[in-house]
Design brief:
Length: 610
C-alpha cells in the first residue's frame, strides 16, 4: 500500500542544541499538540514493541504497538507505531534538525500507511491535520522556550495552609517549592526530583530534599518510590511505601531483570498532594530522547537485520546495550577503524571494540526476534535522591519512621560508610559513679554524637550500651563526623570529673551492605558491619581506626587536615581471610591544643602523640 507522506519545514529561532532539549520532551510536545493521554498494556512477544498503547489519534480510537524511538543526538529522532485498529496500518513521525546560522530548521515528516486504499483520502486529511498541530506545537515550544504552561490551578487556600505548616522549615527552599507547585506545568509536577530542583535553584541538595520531606507532613507533597532501570534509568515501577518494594526489579522497555539495590535502583520522588493541586499525570508518551539523555543513539534491529549505529564524535568509553541485557564496551579514539562489525545474539561479539570518532558500529542481529540497541554514556550527571541517601536523613527518620521494609525483605546497598563508637572504662564508670550519674553522662554523649552525625548527613542506626552505630551515604561526610566527634569529646570532658578515665574511640569502614527492618527501624548487616565494629575494637583512647584505602580517599578529599596518622598496621580481623591494612588516626597536635580545656582540668586528657 502506497504510504501518505506529509512534510513540513519549521524555521525556529533557537539553535539546534536548545531545540533538541525542548522537542525531545515528547510528553510535553504531545500535550501541546492536543493529543490525548495513553493507556499501556505490556507486550512480551518477539517484536521490538514493549507496550500496546490505546489512545485517540485524529478523532479515531486506536490501539497500536509502539516500537522504541530511534535517534542520533542533535540530528534526528523517529517514532514508529504499528496500528492494530483504526484506518492506518503504520505511522512514523520523524523530526530532523539542521542549523541555520545561529537558528535552526526542523523538518517534520509524517508517514502513514492506510489500512485499505479507500481510506487514503481520510488518512490524508487526518495526517494533514496532525502535521499542522505538531508544527504549531513546535513553533510554540520554540517561542516559549523555558516557559511551562500551568495546568489546573492550585487551591490557593490549601497552598497557604501548607505554607503556614512549613513556617519552621527552610524559608528560602519553602518559597521556591510553594511557587513551583503553584505555577509549574503538570508534566513537571508529576515527578518532582528534589536534587534536580536544587541544582536548578542553586541551592544545597540536602536542604531541598529535607524540605520536600517536611512538605509531605505539611500536606503539600506526596512521597513515592520509583524503581529505576539501570540501563534506561527511567522509572519502571512505582510504590508508595518501602514495604511495597519487590525483591527484584523489571524494566519492560529494556526487558531486563535487576537487583533491588537501594543505592542505585530506588529513587524518592514527589508530586503535589491532590488537595493542593490536581494534575494531569498522563502519560502522553513512553519514549523519546529526553527521557534517557545519557543515550547518544538508539536503533531498532529486526530479526536477521543489520543496522549502522553512529558513535559519538567525542573520544571516550561508552556502553553498548541490547534489549534483554546484552552489553559491551565501545572505546571511541583517534586512529581506530571508522566502521566496526558486531554480531548480536545473546551477547555482542566482539564485546569490546574500538572505533574512530564519528564512525559507526554495524550491528547484525542474529536472533529471530526484534530488539533495540543503543550507545550509552558511562558518565552522566543525573540527579536521583536514592532511597539509601533519603533513609539516612534525619528528617526522613523523624517524619517517616514507619516507612520501613517488609518483614524478611533484604535489599542490597553497594556502598555505605559505617561508624561504630565506644567509651573506654564505661563499666568502671557505672561502678564508681553509680547507675544514675553514669547513665546521664552516657545519654548526654549520645546526644552529642547524634547531633554530629545529623550535621554530617548521616543517621544513627542504633545505640548499644554506650556505643553508637551510624551510617553515611558519603564516606567523606563520615570522616568529617569522626573528626568532629574527637574534637567535641575533648570539650565534652571539660569540667566532668566522671570523665577522668573515659575516652571516645571510633571505627569506620566503607563497603557493601544489606538493609533490613529490625525493631521497626532500618538496620544494616553483613561483613562491612562486622569490620567497622572490629576496627573500633582496635582503636585506643581518642583514636579513629579505619582502612588505609578509606584514609587515602579522605586525604585526597582534603578531610584529614585535622588528623594525623599514628601508624599503618595490618589488622587480623575475625572472618577475613587476610589481614586488613589499617590506619590509626588522632587529632593533630595544634587541633587538640585548640580544643583542650584549661590546664587545671586538662590533666586527664592524653596528649597527642608526636
Amino acid at each position: 500500500m502506497k504510504p501518505v507522506v506529509i512534510e513540513r519545514q519549521i524555521e525556529c529561532a533557537a539553535d539546534v542544541c536548545t531545540l533538541w532539549r525542548e522537542l525531545t520532551d515528547t510528553d510535553r510536545m504531545n500535550r501541546m499538540a492536543g493529543m490525548r493521554p495513553i493507556e499501556l498494556t505490556p507486550l512480551s512477544d518477539g517484536t521490538a514493541a514493549r507496550y500496546l498503547v490505546k489512545t485517540v489519534l485524529g478523532g479515531f480510537q486506536v490501539d497500536y504497538e509502539e516500537l522504541p524511538f530511534e535517534w542520533k543526538e542533535f540530528e534526528s529522532f523517529e517514532s514508529h507505531r504499528k496500528m492494530r485498529s483504526g484506518p492506518v496500518l503504520e505511522l512514523r513521525t520523524r523530526l530532523e534538525f539542521a542549523p541555520r546560522g545561529e537558528a535552526s530548521t526542523v523538518t517534520l515528516r509524517l508517514t502513514l500507511v492506510p489500512r485499505v486504499g479507500l481510506l487514503r483520502p481520510v488518512v490524508y486529511l487526518a495526517a494533514t491535520q496532525s502535521a499542522g498541530e505538531l508544527a504549531r506545537a513546535i513553533h510554540r515550544m520554540d517561542a516559549e522556550r523555558g516557559v511551562r504552561p500551568a495546568g489546573r490551578p492550585a487551591n490557593l487556600e490549601a497552598l497557604e495552609r501548607a505554607g503556614r505548616a512549613l513556617e519552621k522549615s527552610d524559608g528560602e527552599v519553602k518559597d521556591h517549592l510553594l511557587a513551583f507547585v503553584r505555577d509549574e506545568a503538570d508534566s513537571k509536577l508529576s515527578r518532582i526530583r528534589p536534587y534536580e530542583l536544587a541544582d536548578a535553584w542553586g541551592l544545597d541538595r540536602t536542604r531541598v530534599l529535607s524540605t520536600c520531606l517536611e512538605a509531605v507532613g505539611a500536606g503539600l507533597l506526596d512521597l513515592r518510590w520509583d524503581i529505576i532501570c539501570p540501563s534506561c534509568r527511567t522509572a519502571s515501577a512505582r510504590v508508595m511505601k518501602l514495604a511495597e518494594l519487590p525483591r527484584e526489579g523489571h524494566c519492560q522497555l529494556c526487558e531486563l531483570d535487576f537487583e533491588m539495590d537501594l543505592e542505585r535502583a530506588v529513587e524518592a520522588t514527589f508530586s503535589p498532594n491532590p488537595s493542593i493541586r490536581e494534575i494531569d499525570r498522563g502519560p502522553y508518551c513512553i519514549g523519546g530522547p529526553a527521557r534517557t539523555p545519557h543515550v547518544y543513539a538508539q536503533v531498532v534491529l529486526h530479526g536477521g537485520a543489520r543496522a549502522a549505529i553512529p558513535v559519538p564524535t567525542q573520544p571516550g568509553r561508552y556502553k553498548l546495550f541490547g534489549r534483554g541485557g546484552a552489553s559491551g564496551t565501545v572505546v571511541v579514539e583517534e586512529g581506530a577503524e571508522s566502521e566496526v562489525e558486531i554480531l548480536a545474539a545473546d551477547g555482542f561479539v566482539p564485546s569490546d571494540v574500538r572505533v574512530a570518532p564519528g564512525g559507526a558500529l554495524v550491528v547484525h542481529n542474529q536472533a529471530a526476534g526484534d530488539r533495540h540497541v543503543k550507545i550509552e554514556r558511562l558518565a552522566w550527571l543525573d540527579a536521583p535522591a536514592t532511597a539509601h541517601e533519603v533513609s539516612l536523613l534525619a528528617a526522613f527518620r523523624r517524619l517517616f519512621s514507619t516507612d520501613i521494609l517488609s518483614t524478611g525483605t533484604v535489599l542490597r546497598i553497594a556502598r555505605v560508610g559505617l561508624l561504630f563508637s565506644d567509651l573506654t572504662a564505661s563499666t568502671a564508670l557505672y561502678t564508681r559513679a553509680g547507675d544514675a550519674s553514669a547513665y546521664r553522662l552516657v545519654h548526654e554523649h549520645f546526644q552529642l554524637l547524634g547531633e554530629i552525625v545529623e550535621r554530617n548527613r548521616g543517621a544513627v542506626v542504633k545505640t548499644m550500651g554506650d556505643a553508637v552505630m551510624a551510617a553515611f551515604a558519603d564516606e567523606l561526610c563520615g570522616i568529617d563526623a569522626c573528626t568532629e566527634m574527637l574534637e567535641a569529646f575533648y570539650r565534652f570532658r571539660h569540667g566532668r570529673e566522671l570523665c577522668d578515665d573515659v575516652y571516645l574511640k571510633l571505627g569506620f569502614f566503607v563497603g557493601p551492605s544489606y538493609v533490613v527492618s529490625a525493631n521497626d527501624k532500618l538496620d544494616y548487616f553483613g561483613q562491612t558491619v562486622n569490620i567497622a565494629a572490629r576496627l573500633q575494637a582496635k582503636a585506643e583512647s581518642s583514636e579513629l581506626v579505619t582502612s588505609v584505602d578509606v584514609a587515602d580517599r579522605a586525604k585526597a578529599g582534603g578531610k584529614l587536615a585535622k588528623l594525623y596518622c599514628v601508624e599503618h598496621f595490618d589488622a587480623s580481623l575475625k572472618g577475613l581471610g587476610a589481614p586488613l591494612a589499617c590506619a590509626r588516626l588522632r587529632l593533630a597536635a595544634d587541633v587538640a591544643q585548640s580544643v583542650r580545656p584549661p590546664a587545671d582540668v586538662a590533666r586527664s586528657i592524653p596528649p597527642p602523640r608526636p
